[in-house]
Amino acid sequence: MSNTITPRPSHGKASVSPPARRALCEHLDDVIGRMQHDLDSAASLVAQAVGEVGGQVGGQVAVDEVELTVVIPVYNEPVTVLEIVDRVRALPISKQVVVVDDGSTDGTTQALERLSGLP
């Protein structure tokens, strides 16, 4: 059994073997874990900076008003991009997700179009 993603151009989808899917999920879990750690660190720094700015101008700024922009570059990743976007959207922070497709030719654009109507 092959551990590679096999594109099916007629449907714009890819078939992934179970071992490859497990490996991808483990890799994504690792990436998301590192992102969560980085986001927690960033949130702490933002809270500190917002507090300092609020003190300098004599007011308070709520950390909840801060929104993070996550930029996800993709190229020929129809399966992976959907998984990553779902995981980023699940993070418990205020965020804007921007996906930049660099001219994919394998159905990534169609996968992203399915996401375009989501909040």
Q: What features would you describe in this structure?
A:
By secondary structure, this protein is α+β, with helices and mostly antiparallel strands. The protein has one domain (14-115). The chain contains three helices and four strands, in the order E-E-H-E-H-E-H. It has helices spanning 18-56, 78-90, 108-115; strands spanning 6-8, 13-15, 68-74, 95-101. The strands form two sheets. Strands 1-2 form a two-stranded antiparallel sheet. A hairpin with a 4-residue loop joins strand 1 and strand 2 (13-15). Helix 2 packs parallel to helix 3. The longest helix is centred in the N-terminal third of the chain and has 39 residues, at 18-56. It is globular.
Strand content: 15-25%
Shape: globular
C-alpha Rg, in Å? 18 Å
- Kindly report the average pLDDT value: 75
The level of helicity is: 40-55%
Lateral arrangement of strands in the main beta sheet? 1-2
Oligomer: single chain
The SS-based structural class is alpha+beta
Instruction: Please mark out the parts with pLDDT under 50 across 5 or more consecutive residues, or reply none.
Output: 1-12
Question: Could you give the count of β-strands?
Answer: 4
Q: Report on the biggest sheet.
A: 2 strands, antiparallel
Number of helices: 3
Order of helices and strands: EEHEHEH
